[in-house]
Amino acid sequence: MKEYDAVIIGAGPAGHTCAVRIAELGGKVAIVERDFIGGICTNWGCTPSKAMIESAKVAHEVENSAHYGIRVSEMQIDFPMIAERRQKVVLNTRHSITDLLNHHNVDIYQGEAVINTPDVVRVRYGNFNNDTYQMEYSGEEAFLHTRNIVLATGSKPLIPPFIDENDPTIVSSHNLITIEELPETLTIVGGGVIGLEFATIFSNLGSKVTIVELLPRVLAMMDPDISAEITKIMESNGVNILTNHRVTTLKDGVLKAVNQDSGDEVEIRSQMNLIAIGRTAVLQEELYQQLGLSYTRRGIDVDDTLETSVKGVWAVGDATGKSILAHCGIQQGIICAENIMRNGSQPRLMDYNVVPAIVYSIPEIFSIGQVPEDLSDVIVVKVPFAVNLRANIEEHPEGFIKLWLRNNKLIATQAIGYMVSEIQQELTNMIALKTDVDQVARIIHAHPTYNEVVRSALEYAEGKAVDFYL
């Protein structure tokens, strides 16, 4: 029986990051994965979807190339080539993660982990069949003795009970990311982050896309101005958005929904229907009950060190139900590893107060911090990208940045605009570090850059904007 400081179950971002950090700190670590190394993010989520979004962005730019004096007589979408490139990106990422684990001497076990006791993990060697969603076992087993177990078992798409998952016209994000042919028509149930990103991909590649959202607006968790702006932009790109509609049936490619205001029923026939109403933690209730491990329907209960109710058993990533964002899982993995290897020093605690959220639509969207309900002592600033020179030079003036400030400190910010994911970190740091606005506004920001809008907005909040007026 092999001896380990930690056995990690699941090789997604949280799991493999945790493994690497434990190894860096001198620990002997094993990772067990029943599917592909890299988990959902690498193989079915972030990586393939962003690879396809990149193709959609290029298509969008070519479609609008005449603005730059470049005339393209005929644009053709070669979807099989897009799919081939998507798979190449996935494979490269998967190989990079595997190489990283091997570099740090992490033992990789391909198969299903069975926890016999909190200090023994049995590995049933085999491969997961993604067509049948069943394990195909080789009959061989290994027993791993460990001081710690880390559960990084991830999440799965949330599918409502009235949906027949065997209907060939119905897909989850997991399935849609692997298709080889572009659907002529696509209906997306859900106007959240996942729904909008897939609407971005397929509408820009030529599919006729409809979004059906239960709530009164898309991206309902964000500021109403953001929802209104992305709705306007997507509708101008041909996306049909039906908000405040409740889906009643979906079968054989026909979706029926009721307008919750008028009671009118709509019927939409599509080649494919994507269910994008969220994700839920993969629960192993029988195991949790056997171990005496505390959990809810959202996920495994953990404290701020990432330890569960059972000493020596930890959980990170989507499995905790805290967040389905990969960067949150990565941070959990690092903190969990450092607490496992701390040897009596003070534990490091996970802080969820400042977690940036990004929507990779066209244009992109970010949200950082908590917008307060009581705005009586809050300054709210909204600056359009139309005042930014770089945005005007490159003809991306749509969108805006919005700030919420209290006592000369940034407490929340949201933005929609071209590549705003690349300008959010400065603002994230300001909120996390509670930095005074004037400290950042005084720093020279390169000109012309998109990030310069941060200085412009901060100076505007102080009443001394020098490069624009509203």
How would you describe this structure to a colleague?
30% of the residues lie in helices and 27% in strands. An 8-stranded mixed beta sheet has the order 1-6-5-4-3-2-7-18. It contains 13 helices and 23 strands. It is an alpha/beta fold. Strand 4 (107-117) and strand 5 (120-129) form a beta hairpin. The protein is globular, with a radius of gyration of 24 Å.
Write the layout of secondary structure elements.
Elements: E1 2-4, E2 6-9, H1 13-24, E3 29-33, H2 39-43, H3 46-63, H4 79-103, E4 107-117, E5 120-129, E6 134-146, E7 149-151, E8 155-157, E9 170-172, H5 173-176, E10 185-189, H6 193-205, E11 208-212, H7 224-236, E12 240-242, E13 245-251, E14 254-259, E15 265-269, E16 272-275, E17 279-281, H8 285-291, E18 313-315, H9 326-340, E19 357-359, E20 364-369, E21 379-384, H10 389-393, E22 400-406, E23 409-417, H11 424-433, H12 437-441, H13 452-461
Parallel strand pairs: 1-6, 2-3, 2-7, 3-4, 7-18, 9-16, 10-11, 10-16, 11-12
Antiparallel strand pairs: 4-5, 5-6, 8-17, 13-14, 14-15, 19-20, 20-23, 21-22, 22-23
Low-confidence stretches: none
Mean residue pLDDT: 95
By DSSP, the count of extended strands is 23
The global form is: globular
Superfamily (CATH H level) name of the largest domain: FAD/NAD(P)-binding domain
What oligomeric assembly is this protein in? Answer: single chain
Which value, in Å, is the CA radius of gyration? 24 Å
Question: What does the main sheet amount to?
Answer: 8 strands, mixed
> What is the CATH-assigned architecture of the largest domain?
3-Layer(bba) Sandwich
Tell me the domain tally.
3
Task: Assign the structural class, choosing from mainly alpha, mainly beta, alpha/beta, alpha+beta, or little secondary structure.
Answer: alpha/beta
- Write out the strand line-up for the largest beta sheet, numbering strands in chain order: 1-6-5-4-3-2-7-18
Strand content: 25-35%
Helical proportion, percent range: 25-40%
Distance between the termini: 70 Å
Instruction: Give the CATH class of the largest domain.
Output: Alpha Beta
- Total number of helical segments? 13
